[in-house]
Amino acid sequence: MAGKGVVKSIYRAMIALLYYWRDEYTRIFRDAEVLVFFLLLPTAYPILYALIYNPEVVVDVPVAVVDESRTVLSREIVRNFDATPAARIVSHCANLDEARLLMMQRDCYAILVISADITDAIARGEQATLVFYTDMSLLLNYKSLYMALTEVTLDMDVTLRQQALPIGVSNSIMNIAQQPVPYASVVMFNPTSGVASFLIPAVLVLILQQSLILGIGMLAAVWHEKGRGWYAPHRIWAQLCARTLCYVSIYIFNIVYLFHFVPWVFGYEQLGSAIEIFLWALPMTLSSIFMATTLSVWVREREYVYLLFVFTSVVFIFLSGIAWPRYAMPEVWRYLSYMIPSTWGIECFVQMNTMGATLAQASHAYVCLWILTLIYAATAYITMRYESKK
């Protein structure tokens, strides 16, 4: 008899699970706003962000030149700088004031000033100086122009060293004079030094989390507006498991689309194993679902979703450490970042998919994701019991 009772209890639990699962599917596909968050947002946003940052590097930044020397050397400097992909010389100004006026009018974003004594200084064996002004309102312009001008000056330095050598020196001495200390610049995990290659993977993880928070919050708001509780006072675990299975089954498509299709289309690095990416996506999705369920207690109307959660996307991208290192954050913000699934999700995904690490090598962030999953599962259960009692 006891065995029959256990079987009957399991049967009833499964029936309840399937009922709540079907019920949640019905709610989702009957609500256009929820479908926007669950399907349209994860589909459209990655394409939008990738197109904005494509191409990944800044090219042909307008530059004004103030050439006070007007010599063969100064013209060569300007010509070589203009030949780089980063810079485009748009004006040769008579003085610095004229160039500043162009910058204030946004006709250029940098000014290169070549002093009148640059040729004489080099002829005397002295160090010559180029003055370079940039508009720091956009760091990408500064980075591209600064690197381009550095390469130009280094190449010209080699040429000047060759010309300064006496006639008839050996090739070995000439090579040493050209480059006393050989160097090479290797950009790890981002060969193009592109913005999208390091930013878009983090954005994809954040889109997964935020779409779940917004969609689940919208579902809670719908039922609160109707004057009915979103959670029934019985079988809380069955409801939580059923809704979690519902969201996970819907997001299987989103996971494949976000973390395989989008990087493949736009040519981003995909060094991680597909199986390990799916293993990573499981706790990332579950922790986001449980956190969204916990936060849904604050959502009483549809508008609350936009007021409470939309602005957090910018906050979460900074807390993740992708734009600003976590070790440099104040302790309050650093500890807050540990509570956000996207923080550990971005760290783990970037290590695997961009840097080629295995799941074992990224185990710290992966374990933290599972810890957050358990914590938010408990808080989601407490939230549902609180709502059901009300």
Task: Summarize it.
The chain has about 400 residues and is an alpha/beta fold. Helices cover about 65% and strands about 5% of the residues.
Question: Top keywords for this entry?
Answer:
4-stranded mixed beta sheet; 15 helices; 4 strands; abc type-2 transporter like fold; 66% helix
Textual characterization of the structure:
- Helix 10 (274-295) runs parallel beside helix 15.
- The protein has a four-stranded mixed sheet, sandwiched between helices.
- With 390 residues, the protein is an alpha/beta fold.
- It contains 15 helices and four strands.
- The protein is elongated.
- The two termini are 37 Å apart.
- It has helices at residues 2-29, 32-52, 72-83, 96-104, 118-123, 139-164, 171-178, 195-225, 236-266, 274-295, 302-310, 312-319, 331-337, 341-354, 363-389; strands at residues 61-67, 87-93, 110-114, 130-134.
- The chain has two domains: 2-53 and 194-389, no CATH class; 61-178, abc type-2 transporter like domain (abc type-2 transporter like fold).
Q: Care to count the β-strands?
A: 4
End-to-end Cα distance: 37 Å
Unreliable segments (pLDDT under 50, ≥5 consecutive)? none
Beta content: 5-15%
Radius of gyration (Å): 29 Å
Biggest β-sheet description: 4 strands, mixed
What order do the helices and strands follow? HHEHEHEHEHHHHHHHHHH
Approximate helicity band:
55-70%
Number of domains: 2
Assembly category: single chain
Instruction: Specify the number of helices.
Output: 15
Rounded mean pLDDT is 84
Assign the structural class, choosing from mainly alpha, mainly beta, alpha/beta, alpha+beta, or little secondary structure: alpha/beta
In the sheet with the most strands, the strands line up as 2-1-3-4
Q: Identify the overall geometry.
A: elongated
